[in-house]
Amino acid sequence: MSPSHIPPETLARAAPPGSSLDYALRLAPAHQREPLQAIAAFTGEIRRIPWHTQEAEVGRATLHWWRTELARILEGGGQHPLAAPLAAAVHEHQLPGAELRAILDEADRALDGDRPETFPEQLRLAERHAAAPLRLAAQVLVGDASATGYATALGSAVGLTRSLRLQGLAARYGDSDLPRETLRQAGVPAEGPLLQSDGTALPSLLRALAVQADAIAPLFPAARGQAPEDRRRVAALRPVTAYAALHQALIAEILRRGPAELIRGRLTLTPLRKVWVAWRGQP
Fold this sequence. Notes:
One of its GO terms (molecular function) is nucleic acid conformation isomerase activity. The protein has helices at residues 8-14, 20-26, 30-51, 56-74, 83-93, 97-112, 119-130, 132-142, 148-165, 167-173, 180-186, 202-216, 219-224, 231-236, 238-257, 260-264, 271-280. It is mainly alpha-helical. It has a single domain (8-280), classed as Orthogonal Bundle (Farnesyl Diphosphate Synthase), CATH 1.10.600. The longest helix has 22 residues, at 30-51. 42% of the residues are buried.
């Protein structure tokens, strides 16, 4: 394997076969696929840290190492197996280091367990951090930053949907990032595990999850209203649009089946529906 290629196991962690990200990447032209895979793999490695680190200090040390490594990557160096393909993507597509650092900042916030106070605050954080990978992908696909606003709107909706999907697991460990205001209004304690072992908090938690799903759903059609007017750019952004459409379909499924499905496990779409939604770019 060439040193500039992404290790298959690293890519598989970020975009497992049959995942929404896997379907979206398959829609990218061959010459753009590897830089998109490098962005996806880097994002996946960073986002794994808060979830797979039991000690916050260990997670912070890992993120500190990655910040140093990213500085080397931006200079064309680096030691990690992802360094060469990511450095090549940065150089070829003039990817801003600030966007890659935003992915690290998101993981830092997750380690801190700092819940936003309100949904608008959570949305602003999603626009700043969670949308960064889609902004980078859009720059690769269209060749400049002209689709930044569109990618930010789609990426923040995607990020909030991804977070909501994980709430069943997060609620058991007290690291949910649901807004404090939403929790208070639903009668859920804002500190500690949201899902108590005796199940007494379950009805309140379901109300909070339903409120969150209702708040996220309108973000997708609003984001589509920011699509570029140039049809060629819209066509070039097909992988990004497909990825967002898959998450829009997921939020619709959550609304249809109810938030209890989030508690039971990671709600997902069938493979056939994923193929159909990704191909159409519409939920």
